[in-house]
Amino acid sequence: MPPPVTTVDDALLLACRRGEPAAQHQLYRLLAYRLMGVCLRYCPSRSEAEDALQNTFVKIFTRLDQYRGQGPFEAWARRIAVNTSLHAVEQHRLRHPVAGGDVLDDLAHDLPSAEPSALEHLATADLLALLAKLPPGYRTVLNLYAVEGYSHQEIGQLLGISAGTSKSQLARGRRLLETRLAAQHSPQLP
């Protein structure tokens, strides 16, 4: 069960800036659950998401002086988690190259649309599991656009791709997700 949503106040941030361990621990407890959710949506494995979360907090604590109080602190921390996770995904891709490209990436643009009712029968856990199985490019763009609210221009800048490529990856990812949803919820013949 997630911890209750609590905003980070200025007194806590000031104590963290002074390097007080109790304050840092409290900030970690307030944000870790939600930021881990961000990391899990991008990273290819739980262990890499845990590493990304660790690196996120290192960056948060070492860059507290860069937070200017413009907008909620939680949003600032979330952006760090997204960028850290994207960096982890890139590092994973460089360590584990896929020979000949990803077959699913190549095939997904030809997939038909699914029945819109498939989403209605899906639990959140099922959706997250399906998202996790999408090819990394599709999953990343879908998360950045649909979950994080980034524009295609911003996604392009973050990932080093064009806005058009971002739009294409989003459309292909949605089609692949819809197809998998329809397959998961179609009646199985005996």
Describe what you observe in this structure:
- This protein is mainly α and 190 residues long.
- The protein folds into 2 domains: 10-95, Rna Polymerase Sigma Factor, Chain: A (Orthogonal Bundle); 103-185, Arc Repressor Mutant, subunit A (Orthogonal Bundle), CATH 1.10.10.10.
- 67% of the residues lie in helices and 0% in strands.
- The protein contains 9 helices and no strands.
- The chain has helices at 10-17, 21-42, 46-62, 73-95, 103-108, 124-132, 136-147, 152-159, 163-185.
- Helix 1 (10-17) crosses helix 2, helix 2 packs across helix 4 and helix 7 packs across helix 9 (163-185).
- The protein is elongated.
- The model is unreliable at 100-121 (pLDDT under 50).
Quick recap of the structure?
The protein is mostly helical. It has helices at 10-17, 21-42, 46-62, 73-95, 103-108, 124-132, 136-147, 152-159, 163-185.
The gyration radius over C-alpha positions equals 19 Å
Q: Would you identify the CATH architecture of the largest domain? A: Orthogonal Bundle
CATH superfamily grouping of the largest domain: RNA polymerase sigma factor, region 2, helix turn helix motif
How much of the sequence lies in strands comes to under 5%
**Any low-confidence stretches, pLDDT <50, length ≥5?**
100-121
The N- to C-terminal Cα distance equals 38 Å
The outline comes out as elongated
The CATH top-level class label of the largest domain = Mainly Alpha
**What's the number of structural domains?**
2
Number of H- or I-type helical stretches = 9
The total strand number stands at 0
Mean pLDDT over all positions: 80
> What structural category do the secondary elements indicate?
mainly alpha
The CATH topology of the largest domain turns out to be Rna Polymerase Sigma Factor, Chain: A
Largest sheet: none
Oligomeric nature of the chains: single chain
